[in-house]
């Protein structure tokens, strides 16, 4: 199974363009898992043309710097995939990204904790 990470922009016109492009390519992706991130909006998990889940992004009290948020999400997501639970992997990605954006410069204040749910 192939994993593809797509980050949709928050700009409405571009979001619509990416959504359209994603729709066109879903048929060709087969059973590829596509987590489509969209900032504070829910992350949508797609498998081919099927929407598996909309995973809400928890509210974040402190946003200092968005640099590295996507990379942090990807790291948390991939680290949590051992159990093949895609929704839990999204939650882990959201949690790690939240830790990164709370500090300037795409760094963590301490070692990340990825909680198993």
Write the layout of secondary structure elements.
Elements: E1 6-7, H1 12-29, E2 33-38, E3 41-47, E4 50-55, H2 69-79, H3 86-101
Parallel strand pairs: 1-2
Antiparallel strand pairs: 2-3, 3-4
Helix pairs in contact: 2-3
CATH class: Alpha Beta
Strand fraction band?
Answer: 15-25%
Please report the distance between the alpha carbons of the first and last residues.
23 Å
Succession of helices and strands: EHEEEHH
Spatial sequence of strands, sheet with the most strands? 1-2-3-4
Individual helix count? 3
At the fold tier of CATH, the topology name is UDP-N-acetylmuramoyl-L-alanine:D-glutamate ligase
Give the strand tally: 4
| CATH architectural grouping | 3-Layer(aba) Sandwich
Low confidence ranges: none
Helix content: 25-40%
What is the radius of gyration computed over CA atoms, rounded to a whole number of angstroms?
A: 14 Å
Q: Output mean pLDDT.
A: 77
Corresponding CATH superfamily: Ribokinase
Structural class: alpha+beta
The main sheet comes to: 4 strands, mixed
User: Looking at the structure, what is the overall shape?
Assistant: globular
Number of domains: 1
